[in-house]
Write a structure and sequence with these properties.
Signal recognition particle alu RNA binding heterodimer, srp9/1, 2,3-Dihydroxybiphenyl 1,2-Dioxygenase, domain 1, four-stranded mixed β-sheet
């Protein structure tokens, strides 16, 4: 069997509910396995670890107890096709208590950080034109949710000046 890798997140929360929510948002996502606390433990039957994929990437939520908390040090970055998909995911991840941050980052209701990037922004930033990169980056720093129409307007304006 080949070696596999996954990101493990030590959390306190409803692991199975979290994994079901995350996998419901993005195609090529699924709950793979739910391991439960043994029958002789005080948490018998509750999820101990949940393996799942989001857009094909593997993750595991592990029950960490009340003394652990997720932080923005680790986030899941989703690069999506268009602004409509950014908007849809942004709304879904913020629902029921999520918090927006800066530069496309947000924290969902469970405390997990996400960054939502429109693929077009990544493509624009791949330019060798340093001045355009600087303008795009400066615009990103002013945003909460990334707005592709703003980046496109910057690129069009930059091209018109060239």
């Amino acid at each position: 069997m080949p070696t596999t890798a996954m990101t493990c997140l030590l959390v306190e929360g409803p692991l199975d509910e979290m994994a079901e929510f995350y996998t419901s948002l993005v195609p090529d996502s699924a709950v793979l396995n739910v391991g439960r606390w043994p029958a002789d433990s005080e948490r018998a039957g509750e999820p101990l670890a949940v393996d799942f994929t989001v857009a094909g990437a593997r993750f595991q939520l592990i029950s960490g107890g009340p003394d652990v908390a997720l932080t923005p040090v680790v986030s899941i970055k989703l690069e999506v096709d268009d602004q409509a998909e950014v908007d849809r995911l942004w709304s879904a991840l913020l629902a029921d208590g999520g918090e927006p941050s800066q530069c496309g980052w947000l924290t969902d209701r469970y405390g997990l950080s996400w960054q939502l990037i429109p693929r077009g922004f990544t493509e624009l930033m791949a330019t060798s034109d340093v001045a355009l990169q600087q303008q795009l980056f400066a615009a990103m720093l002013t945003m909460t949710k990334l707005e592709m129409p703003v980046f496109e307007a910057i690129a069009e304006g930059h091209a018109a000046q060239a």
